[in-house]
Structure formats: structure tokens, C-alpha cells
Amino acid sequence: PLGHKESTLPTKRSCLSNTGGNFLMAGVGFSFIFSWLLMLLVLLTFFLGGNIYMLVCESWRSQQLFQLVDTPGLIPGFNLSEVLGDESGTITFSQIYRQCQQDATLWQTLDLDQRVSLDELLNISQYTEEMSAAFQKLNITLTPISVLNDSQRELLLHACRDAQPPNFTLTLQQLDQGVTVSSLQELAVELEQLVDNAGADVQGDLKADAAELRELDRELDTSFSGLLKTLKENIQLVQSQAAQLETQTNSTLDKASTAQTFLGREMGNIIKNETWAFLEELLGFFETYITWAKSTLRRDVARCKPVVQSLDNVEAIACDHILDSLNTFWFSLGWCTVFLLPSIIVAVRLAKFYRRMDIDDDY
């Protein structure tokens, strides 16, 4: 338009105007050469983006895709229930998908309780009965148990007899009489009585001896009275404990004989009872473990929600990010193709008003 002037004759149009017309015809030529490629690209992208979006994305969100897959006979020779070994034939893709969305386990989703009975498979009562029957047939034979043999009994009896103390009767009587054979006080009195009948030269010695005897008696009483009392108590204690020692020795021998008789008669049964109690405790541990294993297998193991979340993420990436962009691309190219035809017509019609003409039309 900058080089076009209406007053200029068509045969004398400027170079700028002529170039504009040539570009318009060149655009028409390129459009005819490459428009089929543009149309083919629009067709392919429309076929991929539009149909996949409608067939997969929309049907996935409306759950119609699962209904289509669950249609019997859609895939010849394929039956999901038969593949999974379900005799009831009620397992479908939509059911599995819904239960996995609720974070169910594969055991619940595939309804494996109908095909595998965990209670029968992990039942240890049958083994318990076999163990009990085998244990009842068990015969325990032990060598005779000797708590005390004859030589040990004789040693105890000899020790008991040897431990008996001597007769302390005379000793205790003597201790009751005092330290000396006769009383020093009485001897001092007798010496004092002799003073009257003795001579003057002996009276002083007798009085001195009598006083000395009384002093000696007081010293002996002070020094030995506590020791004599302790000695008497110890002798009496030894006598009483010696009497108890014989009784305890006889009681010990009787208990040893009773224990030996009891062990010889009941030891086998005691071992069997304790062993069976230990086995029952072990079986209790196994039952607790089996109960935990069944509960874990049914409720916790192999939750399929992560699989469903992965499928939903794939659907979101493919549909919301890839196919939406692809649909926008072919939609834009489609409108370009639609406007290409009128642009060709307009370009052809305008070209002659810009190009330099070889012959001027004169009316």
C-alpha cells in the first residue's frame, strides 16, 4: 500500500507496489504447494488428540472405560474372573479400581478368602493333636536317684553321735558351789575364832590372814562371777542344741528317704508335665504369630492404592498436560487452514492492483 498510487497507470506502477503484488502471488503459490501438508498434519493431530481424549480421558473420568472393559466378550477368550481364579465371576476392573481407591489390600480386592482359606491353611490344631498323641506315647525312663546313700547316712549318724557333749552335771554343781572347794568366808570366821585361844604373838597373824581371806574372796567374786555365769549359760546352750541336733538329723534322714521315694515314683510324670507345659507355651506363641500373620495379610499387605494413584497421575499428565496442548495445537492449525482458502482468493484478487501490468486496459 505504501508504493501504490491510484493516479499512476498500471503499466507504470512503482517497484515497491510491483514487489508487493509478486509477494501476494508467491504466497498463493506456496499455499498451493504446502497446504496439503498442513491439512495432513491437522488431520493426524486431530485423530490422535481428539479421539484419544474422547475415548480415553473422558471415558476414564466418567468410568465408562471400565464399563466397556468389563463387558463380557469384548476381548475374545479373555475373562478377568477366570484369569484370577474367581469361581463366582463377580470380579471386574471397576470393582478393583474402586476398592483400590479406598486403600484396600489385594486380599480384599481379589476376594481371596473364597479361594484360599487361611483358617484351614494356617490351622495348627491338627499338628497339636498329632504332637499330643505322640507325646502321650513317650515313655521316660530315668536312672534311680539317690538322695543319700548308706555311707552318707552312717556319716551323718556318726557325726550326730560325735557331736553329743559330755555330761556336765558335776561341772554345773561345782560351778554352783563357787570357785573354791570351801568357802573362804567360813575359813576366815574359823581363823577369827582361833584368835581367842591363840597366843599373843599369833593373834595378829591370824587376824591378818582372816582379813586377807575376806579380801581374796571379794576379788574372786568380782573377777569370776560374770565368767562363771557365762560358762554355765554356754554349757546349757550346748546341751540344748545337742539335743536338737539328734532330732534334726533324724528328721533330715526321714525327709531324704521320703524325697527319694517321691522322685523315684513321680519324676517321669513331672518331666512329662513340665515338657508338655513348655510345648503348650510354644504353641501359644505360634498361634499368636499366626493370628497376627492372617490379620496383616488381610488388612495391611499389598495395598493397591499406590497403583491407582500412579494410574491417576499418568492420566492427569497425559490428558491435562499433553493431550490438551496437542488439541490446542491442531485446533489452531485447523482455523489457520480454514482461513487459508479465503486468503488465497483475496491475494489473487489484490495482486493485479499492485503488480506492474504489461498492457493497460483502456475503456
UniProtKB/TrEMBL annotation:
| Pfam families for this protein | Prominin
Chief place of localization: membrane
GO molecular function terms noted in the UniProt entry = cholesterol binding
Q: What's in the keyword line of the UniProt record?
A: Glycoprotein, Membrane, Transmembrane, Transmembrane helix
Locations listed in the record: Cell projection, Microvillus membrane
Keyword Transmembrane in annotation: yes
Q: How does it sit in the membrane?
A: Multi-pass membrane protein
Segments crossing the lipid bilayer: 23-56, 329-348
For this record, the Gene Ontology CC terms, alphabetical, are:
apical plasma membrane; cell surface; cilium; microvillus membrane; prominosome
Q: Which InterPro entries match?
A: Prominin (IPR008795)
User: What family is reported?
Assistant: Belongs to the prominin family.
What is the official name of this protein in its record? PRM1A protein
Q: Lineage of the source organism?
A: Eukaryota, Metazoa, Chordata, Craniata, Vertebrata
Originating gene? Prom1a_1
